[in-house]
Amino acid sequence: TIYDSKRSETPRDKLIGGLLTEDFDERSCVSRYHQSLLYRNPSPYKPSEYLVSKLRSYEKLHKRCGPGTDAYKEATKSLGHDNNENYANKTVGECRYVVWVAGFGLGNRILTLASAFLYALLTGRVVLVDQTKDISDLFCEPFPDTSWLLPHDFPLTTQQIDGYNRGYSRCYGTMVINHAINATSIPPHLFLDIIHDSRDEDKMFFCPKDQTLIDKVPWLIVKANVYFVPSLWFNPTFRDELTKLFPQKEAVFHHLARYLFHPTNKVWGMVTRYYNAHLARADERLGLQIRVFSHQNVYFQHVMDQVVSCAQREKLLPELSTQEDAKVNTSTSQRLKAVLVTSLFPEYSDNLKNMFWERPSSTGEIIEVYQPSGERFQQTDKKLHDQKALAEMYLLSYTDKIVTSARSTFGYVAHSLGALKPWLLYQPNDQTAPDPPCTRSTSMDPCHLTPPSHGCDDDWGTNSGKVLPFVKHCEDRDNDGLKLF
Ligand code: GDP
């Protein structure tokens, strides 16, 4: 039991209600058993017993099938040469796999890896992670006595896998178009393309009939950039299982992320040093995640105005006093609010800081503004840059209230990890701040940004936001996107 001495004498549950296994050495990865320590309060979302037992069985499966095992060697034999054998009635040992390939920004990676892991959990597969990028500089191993890293001598080379795209004959959507896959013709591996502009045929992946075929394929190689969990609920078989695993539907990513992602000691040091230096003593913490998707990679005054207008309208930040010479407050017990800004541009926090320095707040609160980095442009795959991005997602998750930017996977990870329902900043257009500037989200799970627009079979053409009562369009996506509520 760990005690949070700073805030209360309540014992903290270091295994998060059984979500985590005890089978790890604490020091090799301090964040694993300490990440719940920084939370304001223990998360209101408890993992179900069913999820806990499913995770323990998964760990056993991963140990039996993981790199270096006989089962793994047996299964990789089918991949050595690009054979045309039919795997419809063939077994390649007892294990089947999903290989997750790293691509796009860090937020995208975290969301897609969690999605691939859940898919593995639902289908009895083992997830292996492409390690050609800096994943092991970011995260510790999540499964005990084994590894989730795809071995360097995996028979499909990095060069081969990098080259997989829609034109590849083993791309699932392409096989559907070419009628090249059916119950009597199953390849040893398939490439799945679950990207923002995937074709309808690629998105058939989510349909039950297609899953019965895909289920037989020993190796699945996934390149994805969207959180695809909400769409898995459309499959009735998955839905029953998902309902048992996640009775609180909007907590799917929250649980998966706390189970799967444990920042390395390097990153955790960055998180805790920053937290202790700037956030720990505040009475309240507000997170502002400012991400603008624009061809111009610059600071925008209209976005600054939008953030301030959102924060003040929603009473997240005080107004400024109209009296320049407001009574000077000599009290030492003023309320302290720490604002954590994350953005590629340092101007956002500089301006906010000046605002609250130049004039007093109308409430008398002291506003401290911090921004850990201002990297100016995205530098994915540069180690320290990615480590800072990860540290900032965790820091944001430890705030009490959070404002995030529309469609940003960086923001999705931060609020969902922290079990926070964010205020979502609408996407600005035409150099003007939208009115209203933001809306409060009613769910904390991330949005599947580009889900199938169609249903399966009989449901073909129905609005996917209207099929299930708990899967609806996202607030930041105007009649599009799907999200669990
Ligand atoms: P998205 O593009 O907003 O969906 O988020 P991603 O995380 O997938 O990609 C954006 C990338 O840009 C991040 O991973 C970082 O590399 C960088 N980036 C964007 N915003 C920030 C920020 O606020 N802080 C830091 N440190 N990096 C950022």
Describe the structure.
- It is a single chain.
- Strand 5, helix 8 and strand 6 form a beta-alpha-beta unit.
- The model is unreliable at 1-10 (pLDDT under 50).
- The protein is α/β, with parallel strands linked by helices.
- The protein has helices at residues 30-34, 49-65, 70-76, 106-123, 135-138, 158-163, 172-177, 208-214, 229-232, 236-245, 252-260, 265-279, 301-313, 347-358, 383-397, 409-417, and strands at residues 2-3, 11-12, 97-101, 126-129, 189-194, 219-224, 284-290, 336-343, 366-370, 401-405, 423-425, 438-440, 471-472, 483-484.
- The protein folds into two domains: 49-260, no CATH class; 265-484, Rossmann fold (3-Layer(aba) Sandwich).
- 43% of the residues are buried.
- The strands form four sheets. The protein has a six-stranded mixed sheet with strand order 9-8-7-10-11-12, with helices on both faces.
- Guanosine-5'-diphosphate binds next to helix 4, strand 8, helix 15 and helix 16.
- Residues 104-108, 291, 342-344, 373, 375, 378, 380, 385, 388-389, 392, 408-410 line the site of guanosine-5'-diphosphate.
- One of its GO terms (cellular component) is Golgi cisterna membrane.
- It is a single-pass type II membrane protein.
- It is found in: Golgi apparatus, Golgi stack membrane.
